[in-house]
Amino acid sequence: MKPSAAGATPRINKWDDEGREAVRVIVVAPALAWRAGIRALLSADDRLQVIGEAASPSELDLAPPGARILVMAGSDVFLQELGVAVRTMQPVSVLLLVEDDPGAARALINLPVHAWGILSLDASAEELSAAVHALAEGLLVGSPGLLSSLLAGAPVELSGEDEPLIEALTEREAEVLQFLAQGLANKQIAAALGISEHTVKFHASAIFAKLGASSRTEAVRIGIRRGLVML
């Protein structure tokens, strides 16, 4: 595990100008140049704090405590390693940066993480910052093309372990679930449907209960598997 700056110990307590604790991030990438580039982009946002970096998920056991987001660039082998590492880091979210085809990233859908997202390795500092903050709120995030391609490869048939829903989703709940799958925040969903943000939260709670989910990411994952989300 590398410190956040050469020869320096990461500052664990960092606060933004409004007194809010910064979102703690660890950068994971095999190439030093990649890690340096990602760190530089993240450092443009004072609300983010890179507390460490690793060349692979297997090094995360040496990571400083308290990371909320893993920003990761690497191969599909990394995702296999990541499945083991994140079980000791919950709750943690993962943002995967890919060069082109997101197909290898489909393992993200089944990882035991708080939330996940996918962006191009060429994402701008603004895109990267927005994605990290969205993940910190538990949202599913990603550029439209990559996210659609990734979700399109997810299985939609029922598995043998899925129990029938106690109660079917209402038409409005199905609409809200679809927007959740697109990574929209409650305020955005409310504006799109012409309802209050409080009502959106009510529908989301009902969706979680009916699907047996504890988070947005899990609800979307179950919705995809059950064929409730239109891809």
Quick overview:
The chain is α/β, with parallel strands linked by helices and 231 residues long. Helix content is 38%, strand content 13%. It folds into two domains: 125 residues, 3-Layer(aba) Sandwich (Rossmann fold), CATH 3.40.50.2300; 56 residues, Arc Repressor Mutant, subunit A (Orthogonal Bundle), CATH 1.10.10.10.
Keywords:
231 residues, alpha/beta, Rossmann fold, Arc Repressor Mutant, subunit A, 6-stranded parallel β-sheet, disordered N terminus
Description:
The protein has helices at 32-42, 76-85, 125-136, 144-152, 171-181, 186-193, 197-211, 216-226; strands at 23-28, 48-54, 69-73, 93-98, 116-120, 141-142. It has 231 residues and is an alpha/beta fold. It folds into 2 domains: 23-147, Rossmann fold (3-Layer(aba) Sandwich), CATH 3.40.50.2300; 171-226, Winged helix-like DNA-binding domain superfamily/Winged helix DNA-binding domain (Arc Repressor Mutant, subunit A), CATH 1.10.10. It has a 6-stranded parallel beta sheet with strand order 2-1-3-4-5-6.
Topology:
Blueprint: E1 23-28, H1 32-42, E2 48-54, E3 69-73, H2 76-85, E4 93-98, E5 116-120, H3 125-136, E6 141-142, H4 144-152, H5 171-181, H6 186-193, H7 197-211, H8 216-226
Parallel strand pairs: 1-2, 1-3, 3-4, 4-5, 5-6
Helix pairs in contact: 5-7, 5-8, 6-7, 7-8
